[in-house]
């Protein structure tokens, strides 16, 4: 619905939360004077809303004209409006775009709104700049303001400091910003004066996260400058900002790379990225619920953040959701499900019988909530890892030459420490039917007396023991090199324990992936209306279905 050149009494229009938190008093007084004399000439943008008292529409863009008309002409003023039927995200975008193109919108408000927009487009700054009509450079500068402390942003909003002050302060930790701010205001320090102050205090080697071995003899180390020159900045600082930044970025990238095997997505978070992620929670005001949280762990937008912010440089934040719009929707769904469950009439529960799950029942809503992939829960991870170990042990034990090559590679990589003496002891006792000596001398004698065949078998045992003790990342790497084919080691019909780890929703995903849904046809829905034990039994006994060679993606390396 789009209607222009229409008017409606102001009292029928509800105000919407605005990205702008401050209006210049002088400029707003001019707007009021114009509206008093000429009325509102340019229509404001509104959207229709469900009945809410007297309200029929919600203001989307044009709050200044709305306020000026209300104060000068009252609630019955026939307000020119342009009606557009839009959703919440579109309304937020249009409200922000309308404000950022007004010359008097405070830069701090622009920064907050731009950061939220970047979050809604999943961190794509180029797309955010396109929506705003800004250059990428302007967007980056505004987002950098998000690293300002709340006191600095407030001072910028109320024009106590200039934009240049805030941009310089954003490079510092927030506690240092708050210490400098009163000095800047009271002494009316210029931007150039502040710049000199920060240059003198920047690039502290004490707070650096990279290896500082090379810095000890570097001419840019202020400790050496103090010895060479009469005037120099305080010791323990680096005067080569470019080199300092490059080393810091390299370290941050290294931390992020080390987490790649553990999470679907890992990002380095820098100034302005505050609103592009959110901590995934099960409960509380921002919780998504237990079942949804399990599903989220398998999402490609779930992972870890490495901080590139001054006051938490190098810190890793796990359990991060990088799709903030999706997260907000899941939270809203959980809250609605709980509200509906609380409102369900007690009369619907039969006396003396277990309560049947109603449409609004919280547990039912959580259990029936669809998921798109099987969650990488800790139980599933442990099951998968043990499957890899068992399959590798079996294949390596059948090829002595390969076992020997793997053992050499493991030793060369320093991973022979993973071979447990107790595991080798069990191999030795089983092979020779002798007890393992507790002394090195006894072990040397026992090994020397073994024939060549048994020594070869124990070498295979060493490799198997190394596989048992390997960390998951190295185990995965060995699986890939070996080109381990799990199809000959896993079969759903022999894996009831795997199905018991899954929710019914995840079992639906599994049935789709392996082709069981298609094989069941109309009986699929009937099966999943049954209790979980019966669903498992049904999935393991599908008539004429070939289970051979079908392995779920979640179990692959």
Automatic annotation (TrEMBL):
Residues 342-375 are annotated as: Disordered. Gene3D superfamilies: 1.10.10.2830, 3.90.1530.30. GO terms for biological process: chromosome segregation. Residues 342-357 have a biased composition (Low complexity). One of its GO terms (cellular component) is chromosome. Pfam families: HTH_ParB, ParB_N. It comes from the Bacteria. InterPro entries: Chromosome_partition/occlusion (IPR050336), HTH_ParB/Spo0J (IPR041468), ParB/RepB/Spo0J (IPR004437), ParB/Sulfiredoxin_sf (IPR036086), ParB_N (IPR003115), PRTRC_ParB (IPR022396). Residues 6-100 form the ParB-like N-terminal domain. Keywords: Chromosome partition. GO terms for molecular function: DNA binding. Belongs to the ParB family. PANTHER family: CHROMOSOME-PARTITIONING PROTEIN PARB-RELATED. This is Partitioning protein. It comes from Cupriavidus taiwanensis.
């Amino acid at each position: 619905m789009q209607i222009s050149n229409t008017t409606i009494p102001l009292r029928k229009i509800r105000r919407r939360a605005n990205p702008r938190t401050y209006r210049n008093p002088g400029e707003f007084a001019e707007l009021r004077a114009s509206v008093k004399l000429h009325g509102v000439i340019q229509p404001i943008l509104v959207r229709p809303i469900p009945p809410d008292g007297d309200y029929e529409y919600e203001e989307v863009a044009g709050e200044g004209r709305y306020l000026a008309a209300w104060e000068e002409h009252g609630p019955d003023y026939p307000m020119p409006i342009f009606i557009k039927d839009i959703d919440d995200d579109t309304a937020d975008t249009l409200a922000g775009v309308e404000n950022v193109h007004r010359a008097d919108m405070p830069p701090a408000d622009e920064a907050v709104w731009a950061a939220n927009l970047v979050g809604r487009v999943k961190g794509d700054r180029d797309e955010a700049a396109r929506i705003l009509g800004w250059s990428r450079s302007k967007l980056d500068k505004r987002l950098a303001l998000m690293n300002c402390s709340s006191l600095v942003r407030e001072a910028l909003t109320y024009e106590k400091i200039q934009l240049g002050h805030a941009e310089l302060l954003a490079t510092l930790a927030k506690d240092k910003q708050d210490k400098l701010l009163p000095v800047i205001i009271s002494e009316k320090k210029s931007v150039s004066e502040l710049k000199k102050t920060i240059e003198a205090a920047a690039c502290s080697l004490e707070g650096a996260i990279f290896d500082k071995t090379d810095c000890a003899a570097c001419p840019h180390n202020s400790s050496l400058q103090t010895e060479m020159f009469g005037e120099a900045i305080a010791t323990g600082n680096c005067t080569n900002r470019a080199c300092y930044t490059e080393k810091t970025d390299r370290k941050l990238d290294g931390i992020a790379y080390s987490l790649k095997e553990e999470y679907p997505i890992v990002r380095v978070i820098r100034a302005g990225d505050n609103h592009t992620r959110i901590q995934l929670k099960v409960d509380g005001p921002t919780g998504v619920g237990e079942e949804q949280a399990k599903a989220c762990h398998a999402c490609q937008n779930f992972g870890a953040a490495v901080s590139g912010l001054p006051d938490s440089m190098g810190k890793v934040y796990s359990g991060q959701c990088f799709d903030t719009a999706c997260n907000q929707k899941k939270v809203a769904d959980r809250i609605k499900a709980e509200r509906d469950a609380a409102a369900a009439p007690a009369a619907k529960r039969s006396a003396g019988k277990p309560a049947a799950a109603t449409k609004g029942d919280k547990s039912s809503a959580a259990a029936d909530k669809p998921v798109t992939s099987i969650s990488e829960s800790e139980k599933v991870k442990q099951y998968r890892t043990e499957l890899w170990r068992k399959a590798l042990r079996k294949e390596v034990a059948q090829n002595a030459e390969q076992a020997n090559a793997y053992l050499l590679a493991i030793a060369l990589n320093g991973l022979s420490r993973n071979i447990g003496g107790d595991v080798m002891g069990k191999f030795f006792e089983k092979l020779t039917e002798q007890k393992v000596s507790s002394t090195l001398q006894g072990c040397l004698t026992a090994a020397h007396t073994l024939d060549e065949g048994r020594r070869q078998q124990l070498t295979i045992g060493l490799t198997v023991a190394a596989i048992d003790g390997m960390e998951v990342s190295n185990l995965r790497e060995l699986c890939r090199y070996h080109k381990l084919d799990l199809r000959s080691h896993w079969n759903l019909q022999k894996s009831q324990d795997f199905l018991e780890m899954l929710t019914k929703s995840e079992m639906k995903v599994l049935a789709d992936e392996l082709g069981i849904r298609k094989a069941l046809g109309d009986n699929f829905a009937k099966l999943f209306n049954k209790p979980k034990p019966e669903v498992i039994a049904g999935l393991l006994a599908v008539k004429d279905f070939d289970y051979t060679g079908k392995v779920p993606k979640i179990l692959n390396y």
